[in-house]
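Structure first, sequence second, as always.
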C-alpha cells in the first residue's frame, strides 16, 4: 500500500513529466515554425536572384542615407548605376566608377584624377554593384520579418544576420517588392549604432546601351592625372 509521501512524489514526477513533454512539444513546434520561416525567406531570396539573373542589363537610380544619432550624423546622397553581367558604370557622390570586366577606372573630377586598378571578380571580398543585388546568398542567417505597404506596394522584409562574428553589421533588413521580386531597399544597422539605408527610386531593365557603355576613354580626360595601381 502506497504511503501519502509516495503518492505526493509520484504526482510530482507525473506533473514534471507532463511539463517536460509539453515543453518539448512547444520547442519542436517553435523549431518547425522557424524552419518554415527560413524556407519561405530562402525561397523569396532565390526568386529575387533568379529575376536579377534573367535581365540582360539593369539601370538603377538610388538614394543612400547614413545616420548615427550618437555622433549626430545625417547624410543623404543620390546615385545611379548601369550593370550588364559583371560590368558596370556607377555614379555616386561625384565620383564615377567604370568596370569593363577586367579593370576598374575611378574618375574623380574634384581631384582631376583617374585611378586604374585590376579587380579579381572571383574574390568573394570584392564588392561590385552586381554582387550587391545578390550578396545575401551566403554568409547570413535569415528569416521573414514584417510586411509594409509603401505607396501601394507590398514590401516583404527579410532579416539577415551575418554569420561572421567579426562583421561590424548587427543586422540587415532587405525589403523586397512581393509582386516584382525586385529589391526596394536595404537597411543596415551597425554594431556602433550607425544605420545606412539604400532605397531604389527607379529600377529599369534591358535598356538600349551603347557599345562603349563600359569602356574607359582616356581622351575624354586630357588634363587628368592617370594613376595606375597595377
Amino acid at each position: 500500500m502506497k504511503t501519502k509521501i509516495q503518492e505526493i512524489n509520484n504526482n510530482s514526477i507525473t506533473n514534471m513529466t507532463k511539463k517536460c513533454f509539453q515543453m518539448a512539444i512547444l520547442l519542436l513546434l517553435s523549431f518547425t515554425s522557424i524552419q518554415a520561416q527560413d524556407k519561405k525567406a530562402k525561397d523569396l531570396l532565390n526568386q529575387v536572384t533568379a529575376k536579377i539573373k534573367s535581365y540582360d542589363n539593369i539601370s538603377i537610380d538610388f538614394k543612400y542615407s547614413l545616420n548615427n544619432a550618437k555622433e549626430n550624423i545625417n547624410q543623404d546622397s543620390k546615385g545611379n548605376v548601369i550593370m550588364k553581367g559583371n560590368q558596370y558604370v556607377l555614379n555616386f557622390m561625384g565620383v564615377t566608377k567604370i568596370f569593363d570586366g577586367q579593370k576598374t577606372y575611378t574618375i574623380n573630377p574634384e581631384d582631376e584624377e583617374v585611378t586604374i586598378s585590376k579587380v579579381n571578380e572571383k574574390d568573394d571580398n570584392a564588392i561590385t554593384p552586381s554582387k550587391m543585388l545578390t550578396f545575401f546568398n551566403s554568409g547570413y542567417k535569415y528569416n521573414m520579418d514584417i510586411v509594409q505597404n509603401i505607396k501601394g506596394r507590398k514590401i516583404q522584409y527579410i532579416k539577415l544576420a551575418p554569420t561572421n562574428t567579426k562583421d561590424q553589421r548587427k543586422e540587415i533588413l532587405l525589403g523586397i517588392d512581393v509582386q516584382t521580386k525586385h529589391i526596394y531597399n536595404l537597411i543596415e544597422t551597425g554594431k556602433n549604432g550607425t544605420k545606412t539605408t539604400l532605397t531604389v527610386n527607379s529600377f529599369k531593365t534591358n535598356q538600349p546601351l551603347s557599345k562603349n557603355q563600359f569602356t574607359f576613354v582616356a581622351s575624354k580626360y586630357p588634363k587628368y592625372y592617370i594613376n595606375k595601381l597595377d
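Margin note: Residues 17-36 have pLDDT under 50 and may be disordered.
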